[in-house]
Structure formats: C-alpha cells, structure tokens
Amino acid sequence: MKRLIKTIFIFALIAGLLWGVSGSWLKVKVSMPSEVDIAAYQGVYDGLLEDLHNRSLQGHAFRNLPQEESSNGRMVIYTITATNRLPFPIQMMELSIVPSSKDILTVGGLKETGYDINKGVEVQPFSTAEVHLILITTDARIERDLKLTGYLLGYPVERKLR
User: Fold this and answer.
1) Three-state DSSP class for 148?
2) Max CA pair span of the chain
3) Nearest 5°: CA angle at 107, between 101 and 108?
4) Which residue would you say has higher pLDDT here, 154 or 13?
5) Which residues constitute the domain of residue 38?
6) CATH number for the domain that contains residue 145
7) Does residue 129 form part of some domain?
8) Is there a contact between 107 and 72 (Cβ–Cβ < 8 Å)?
9) Mean pLDDT of the chain, nearest integer
10) Structurally, how many domains does the chain consist of?
11) How far apart are CA 133 and CA 106, in angstroms?
C-alpha cells in the first residue's frame, strides 16, 4: 500500500511539474523579418530553387512558382531564437506552413549546421538555438501562417510565430 501511494505521489509530482512548465518550456523570439532584393542574391535564389526541386522529388509538399512570377517575388529572412528551459533536450524547430499558401518556394535550414528545419533539431537543456528561415514569396500574407512545432516528451506543441 505504501508503495502504491509513493508511486501515485511521484506521478502526481511529475505531472504537476510538467503542467507548471508547459506554458514556458520553450521561449521563442522572432526577429523582424528583413526583406532583401532577390536580384542581389541571385545565387542564393537559384540554390533555393534547386533545393525546392530536390525536395519536391522526395515528396515534400512545396510548390514552385512560374519563373515569370518568381522574378517579382521577395526574399524574407527570419531569425528565430529558441530557448529550452527544461533540464532535458527538446526536439524542435519543425516549421510548418499551411497548405493554402500556394506560392512558397522554399524554406531554408539552419545556417550554421545545414540541417533541414523540417527534420527538426535538438536543443540542449537550458540552451539556445538560432534558426534562419528563408522564404521566397509574392504574397506577404503567408507570413501569418508560420508555426513552430516542438516536442515535449514526444507530444507536439505548436506555437504560432505571429
């Protein structure tokens, strides 16, 4: 009987701890987007288009813009800083965009390591990770659809970036 009470107490303590930190387990700060002229970054732009083509062959749901439209697009770069406040690593940095946003060309990965954001990255306990998200679009409204997904003990938790 004592063992059962002790087990229930431990589970209640863990559940209380997780409930208490669930609202603040991940602190996300998004910088103001910086818009750059695509013509000035033509090499980067071409590389992103090639990356898009490779992803679409692998079954990723990204759509290409017709070439004549893409020349009128804009490249927006976000810097996302995320801080893990828990004593164990968090799998996070999956950025998803709702399917109704038709004109996204690509999403860039981690600048430092080259990881694909869609595959996720592990943020160590009490540390910070910085991610650069690159969008090429002709529609500024898609920026409201950006979401960051983190995994707390295997359960996905979403935060809208806007």
Assistant:
1) strand
2) 74
3) 165
4) 13
5) 25-160
6) 2.60.40
7) yes
8) no
9) 55
10) 1
11) 9
**pLDDT tens, position by position, 78-125:** 666 667 777 777 765 444 443 334 434 334 433 323 333 444 566 787
Within a domain: 20: no
In a domain, 6, yes or no: no
Structure tokens at 6: 């002790």
Residue 8 belongs to what H/E stretch?
A: helix 2-21
Q: How far apart are CA 47 and CA 113, in angstroms?
A: 17
Q: Is residue 7 part of a domain?
A: no
For residue 41, the one-letter residue type is Y
Taking the C-alpha atoms of residue 160 and residue 89, their distance in angstroms, rounded to an integer, is: 21
DSSP string across 36-102: E-GGGGHHHHHHHHHHHHHHHHTT----PPPHHHHTT-EEEEEEEEEEE-SSS-EEEEEEE--TT-T
